[in-house]
Amino acid sequence: MSERGRWPNWEPRQQIRRPRRWLLRILVLTLVAVLALLGLGAGGIWWATEHYGDQVARIPDAFPKGPRPPEPTAHDGGTTFLLAGVDSRSRRPTTGSDATAQLWKYGAQRSDTLLLVHLGDGEHSASTMSIPRDSWVPIPGHGSAKINAAFSWGGPPLLIQTVEQLTGTRVDHFGVIDWHGFRSLTDAVGGVPVTIPRDTYDPEQNRHFTAGTHVLNGEQALAYVRQRHGLPGGELDRIKHQQQFLRSLVGQIRGDVSITDPLATDRMLDAITRAVSVDDRMSNGDLRSLALGLRHLDAADASFTTAPIVRSQMIDGQYALILDREKVRNAWRAEQAGHSTAPGR
Q: Does some domain include residue 229?
């Protein structure tokens, strides 16, 4: 049994250290999805995207210099986003309009969650591929390493370049959020319901997760989507948790946000703009076009998959996941063409 705002038997037995890793996958897509869900007319969306779009923090020079992948021949005319959740050591926010610390400083942050998202032409379909943080890949100028090191070594440009090289696709826009923002967004929607199939214990976080359906607040949700210890599938089970959480979050927004409750809507949009940073090539007009196109996008039109994995192994004393790079590229080309054959549906 659960009740809103509480999670029995879930509190840690002792004070834990500040989280080092987390998750997130809501970014600018959440902003435009919320606008779309309001059912606003074109005039209302124009006002909202101008008003709230001006508050979204832009990242200067987010894209890499030099040659980049061409558009795939099977491209459907849609838009590809790279969304990152960063593990920041900063005690202050590093993303969004509330940021008081640098988004990137060499060695201080790693990308803990990576999502490649493709919105089809007209924004009537959405495909998401999760790229595990432990994926062992070539990082331009640094040899091979876990993909989460790319952000640590070179910030958004190196991360984008690494993902483009891995997938063979061009990233159109980039969005990022830190764990401060993740917690505030979860709390802004009043918590997110999640069904946990079995009792588990995470020794790294010293937390118990109790089977059942619970409405998670920001702190609880952060721990849930960070968990990989105590799960049979480790990192892959954590990705499943993250995808489960995202689906539930979208459903919560659809159910809770209403044009008849402008104060609650305003609080949510303010929370999003305070938490999220996007590339400076994303204009308010881009946000407006997305909001208009996404008005009829339903959860049934969204699909989730994970980059194809060959095996796990220890490399230089590190746990790593070896990807099938050819299948990664083929799977993503299929996503862009709108007829994915990738596993994990």
A: yes
Among residues 211, 248, 180, 214, which one has the least CA distance to residue 23? 180
Say how far apart CA 171 and CA 177 lie, in whole Å.
17
Alpha-carbon distance of 40 to 291, in angstroms, equals 9
- The pTM (predicted TM-score) of the whole model is 0.75
Q: Which residues lie below 8 Å from residue 155, measured CB to CB, with a gap of 6+?
A: 103, 104
Smallest CA-to-CA distance from 247 within 30, 95, 84 is with: 30
pLDDT of residue 28: 42
Ramachandran category for residue 122: left, alpha or beta (phi over 0 → left; psi -120 to 50 → alpha): left
Residue 18 within any structural domain of the chain: no
CATH number at residue 333: 3.40.630.190
Tokens of residue 185, six digits: 């967004």
Return phi, psi of residue 157, to 5°.
-60, -45
For residues 78 and 119, the answer to whether their CB atoms sit within 8 Å is: yes
Residue 150 in any domain: the answer is yes
Q: Which of 106-110, 191-195, 250-254, 338-342 has the highest mean pLDDT?
A: 191-195
Total domains present in the chain: 1
Residue recorded with tokens 């996941």: 321
- Triad 15, 21, 25: Cα angle to 5°: 125
Place of tokens 């994303």: 282
How much is the CA Rg of the chain, to the nearest whole Å? 19
The span from the first CA to the last CA of the chain, in angstroms, equals 30
Question: What's the whole-number average pLDDT of the chain?
Answer: 76
The greatest distance separating any two alpha carbons of the chain, rounded to the nearest whole angstrom, comes to 57
SS3 290: helix
Angstrom distance (rounded) from CA 336 to CA 66: 24
Has residue 22 been placed in a domain?
Answer: no
172, 185, 221, 223, 323 from 179: Cα distances, Å: 24, 10, 11, 10, 27
3-state class (DSSP) for residue 316: coil
**Residues, the chain:** 345
Tokens of 74: 């099977």
Range of the domain at 77: 28-337
Q: CA–CA separation, 278 vs 272, rounded Å?
A: 12
